[in-house]
Amino acid sequence: MLEGCSKEKPPVYRIGFSQCSMSGPWRKAMLTGMERELSFHPEVELRMLDAHDDSRKQEEQIRELVQEGVDLLIVSPYESEPVTPAVEEAYRRGIPVILLDRRTASEQYTAYVGGNNVEVGQTAARYIARLLKQRGNILEILGTPGSSATSERHQGFVQGLSAYPGLRVVAQVTGDWTVRTLKPELTKALQAHPEVTMIFSHNDGMGHGAYEVCQELGLTKQVRIIGVDGLPGADEGLDLVQKKMLHASILYSPGGEEAIRTALKVLKKAPFNKENILGTIVIDSTNVLTLLQQNDKMMSQQQDIERQQGLLHRLQQTYASQQVVLNWLLVTLLGAVALGAAAWYSARKNRQINHLLALQNTENDKINRQLLRQNEEILQQRNQLEVMAEQARADTEAKLRFFTNFSHELRTPLTLILGPVEELLTSSPDLTAPQRQDLALVRRNTQRLLQLVNQLLDFRKIEVGKMEVRATESNLVAFVREIVDAFEKPARLRGVDLRFQVAQPVLMAWFDGNILDKVFFNLLSNALKFTPDQGRITISLQPADEGRSVRVSVADTGYGISTQDQAHIFEWFYQGEQGAVAKGSGMGLALAQGLVKLHQGQLTFSSQPGQGSTFVVTLPRELPEALHSHGPTAPLQLSLDEPEPITSDLGHHLSETPTEAASETLVLVIEDNSEVNDFLTRKLRTDFRVQSASDGHTGFRMATELIPDLIVCDVMMPGLSGLEVVTQLRADWRTSHIPVVLLTARTAPEQQVEGVQAGADLYLTKPFNPTFLLESIRTLLANRARQREHFRRELSIDTATVATTNPDQKFLADLTAIVEANLTRSDLSVEDIARSLGISRMQLYRKVKAVLGTGVTDFVQNLRLTKARELLLDESLTIAEVAYELGFSSPSYFSASFKAHYQLAPSEFRTLHIAPHY
Question: Which part of the chain is the HTH araC/xylS-type domain (predicted)?
Fold first, then answer.
């Protein structure tokens, strides 16, 4: 709350102010202007509410201010449409409404105060035309897409430039009114357009970021920058112009003072304008010092006013306190006479009372000393308990970290168990029935062990608050039915009657299937485990709480839970007395309860020993918006080509002239665990040529030397981790095209996202299915082959220029530029090109072969023939001149090569494409 009145005198007017957000220098300047104007009006109270760029919240705040009975309402809308009904409602109720900076979608308001963004853009265009003498190339930095200020400033800028045909906007960069995402895109734009001499930024903050980019690129003398806002303060528009970081800034007044002045005119029934459009000026080196001095003078005057008001307030308080003291003195004087009469009588009584009090005080001192000793003992005991509790927490945390890390380590041996077992079961038809039964037993128990590992990891996630709910709206009946169906066969084999009862066939609710799947699986697994043969399990699902929630119950006719165990049934790792039934891990029910609470539900149970148990899950059908999933994450659209390997044994020097591709594909395996490394090598060697490395540094070195067709890499390795290997591979254009498959025991979604963001093409968690790995590799190599064909087509068009949108295309662009610069040399060799690129001859051959599927010589020949088509259209050149211009040793060799490539002789091509002269 901002108050413009003293506490002794209530305000005459109460103004409510709802705005988008307090953040940003411009909005702070708006609020500062309001405070400055209110300092002259102590009779006015301003109540400000901040919607933090939330239109729905701003609508609620406007209605809240109306309910509080404000005399006038000032609204700075975030979006025009959503808040229009609330503004109209306030206007119809007789409350004057002033719109500040932005308008609503209705004409029902009292007044508007704000700048003209179209005029700002036009002013910038006119000023730039004067600076550049109506000729030059401009880069425009836009604000947030969809913002009215962005669209209007751009519109005015385009309108202003239309009068100057010599001025041209060659590039646009989109920002968000800050520099968080501006610099990378701006750097690319300036590098792509070195002809830019002027930058028009939609605000001074982004202009400041543009200056830093120009400084990094060495363009500060060539490129001038113009911003918008012209605010005072450190690193704001006036300061940046004075420091010559900005050449100029277009003033866009926040309008805080004008809004308060207009509000007071409305409240005092004085004449006012409905439309108050704030003007703008250009701030540059000619007037910035004057404006800074004016601002300093205004701030100094404001401080003087505040000091005077503070002094006046203190004098008023002093005067009020003196009046109170005077009144009390009069009352005291009148009471003194009465008190004097009573004093003598009281003195006699006091002597008697003091004697008794002395005796009582002596006794109290003894009691106080005893209590003090007891308090010191209690404090010492409490400190000891706190130390013990902290030690217990540290011990518990250490144990949890141990179990979590141990669980991760279990995934590697599980991989070596489950992988071969899965392959034997799926690809060995000659196994006997007993052998298949034994292998199936191994697979079931391995999967059971994996399930226990996952439960322990889920427990750790819940403990540290890393488990998140991502709910979608779906049919809960169908979801539970699928889980029940999975238990139908094992229940039938034991003669257990498994029943699923629903109140209605469809019950839509918001829930996270990954979470509830674990809950219901645990409950049904326990029910089946503790229900004897020929027993019964009943799963019922029905709405509750008048349809606002849903209740799922799992009832069995099993052994029940003893009274002693019922108090601890949801404790982690607690194992009760279960008679003849094998004990579990003690995590299932505790995990289920934790997951249900995470889902904002409740898990309860009832049980009679010897008669059975019933577990009930109650879930809300609606969940907060923050827990809703906004759809699955879109898969990364990576175009991966399959390079053709060259004819040589990997690990040895290649022949001097590699001419023919081998029939096998090379895969590099990087894995520090020797057994997993050996397992992967054996499984992949049946389909590919395989080389392996036992650490990240060796793997990266081998990748740059061998240029494999695909890499399979572990994540957690000593020294250089898998993520770091991928990052280095993507940063090196020699290896940037190679598809990478990451294998890891880290299963958290955020860890998988981290792997993909580093540049991995596929992220598989251990244990993995070897067949799935093989098929994934084939798919990645096929995708690589398709992209290689795309590069071939791109280089076959008339112009040989390649857009540098990724490392592979940048490599082709650099290669093309070097070849084009040396086309006239008939002695141009592969060694010359490799030397210009700073790599070896063999590395150049492998890279070109992997990206384009062709040799370096063929690439140069195709580039020469593509350039020949362009030169043949120039009638001033003879065919022989074209041949020598492109580095062909003789016109006859040029003609033969051209005809073999295009099925036309050069003379025939020229005849077809050049119109005859008459």
Answer: 813-912
Write the CATH number of the domain with boundaries 13-109.
3.40.50.2300
- pLDDT category, 585, cuts 50, 70, 90? low
Q: How confident is the model at residue 715 (pLDDT cuts 50, 70, 90)?
A: confident
CA distance 584 to 229: 68
CB burial string 334-359: b at 16+ within 10 A, e below: eeeeeeeeeeeeeeeeeeeeeeeeee
- Among candidate residues 238, 246, 182, 181, the one with its CA nearest the CA of residue 211: 246
Give ranges for CATH 3.40.50.2300 in the chain. 13-109, 117-250, 666-790
Structure tokens at 81: 């449409």
Read off the pLDDT of residues 772-786 as tens digits, 9 standing for 90 and up.
888 888 888 887 777
Looking at residue 902, its pLDDT comes to 79
3-class DSSP state of 782: helix
Closest CA to 43 of 5, 14, 1, 73: 5
Nearest residue to 287 via CA among 238, 329, 254, 333? 238
Burial class for 256, CB neighbours closer than 10 Å (0-12, 13-18, 19+): buried
pLDDT tens for each residue of 133-156: 999 999 999 988 877 788 889 999
Return d(Cα 878, Cα 906) in angstroms, integer. Answer: 10
- CA 489, 492, 494, 497 torsion: positive or negative? positive
Residue 596 has pLDDT above 90, yes or no: no
Q: Please give the pLDDT value at position 96.
A: 95
Alpha-carbon gap, residue 739 to 712, rounded angstroms: 9
Which three-class secondary structure string do you get for 178-189? CCCCHHHHHHHH
Q: Of residues 379 and 445, which shows the higher confidence score?
A: 379
Q: What is the CATH number of domain 117-250?
A: 3.40.50.2300
Packing angle of the helix pair 807-821, 770-795 (nearest 10 deg): 30
Which helix or strand (DSSP H or E) is residue 319 part of? helix 288-427
Give 839 or 551, the one with higher predicted confidence: 551
pLDDT reported for residue 16: 92
pTM of the model: 0.37
Of 221, 222, 227, 196, the C-alpha closest to 209 is 227
Q: Locate CATH 1.10.10.60 in the chain.
A: 807-914
**So what's the architecture of 468-576+584-627 in CATH?**
2-Layer Sandwich (3.30)
What integer pLDDT is reported at residue 223 of this predicted model? Answer: 94
The DSSP result for 19-82, as a single string, is: ES-S-SHHHHHHHHHHHHHHTT-TTEEEEEEE-TT-HHHHHHHHHHHHHTT-SEEEE--SSHHH
* CATH code for the domain defined by 807-914: 1.10.10.60
Give the whole-angstrom CA distance, residue 407 versus residue 449. Answer: 10
| Residue 649, Cβ density class (10 Å: 0-12 exposed, 13-18 middle, ≥19 buried) | exposed
Q: Which residue has the higher pLDDT, 900 or 49?
A: 49
Lowest mean pLDDT among 457-466, 536-545, 675-684: 457-466
- Binned at pLDDT 50, 70 and 90, residue 792 comes out as low
Domain with CATH 3.30.565.10 in the chain: 468-576+584-627
Contacts of 404 (CB under 8 A, 6+ apart): 456, 457, 460
CA atoms of 608 and 562, how far apart (whole Å):
8
CB-based contacts of 162-169 (< 8 A; 24+ apart in sequence): 163/125, 163/129, 164/125, 164/129, 164/134, 166/134, 166/135, 166/136, 167/125, 167/128, 167/129, 167/132, 167/134, 167/135, 167/136, 167/138, 168/136, 168/137, 168/138, 169/138, 169/139, 169/140
Digit-coded pLDDT (tens) for 471-488:
888 899 989 988 888 788
What is the length of the chain? 918
> What percent of the chain is modeled with pLDDT above 70?
83
Structural contact between residues 807 and 733, judged by C-beta atoms closer than 8 angstroms: yes
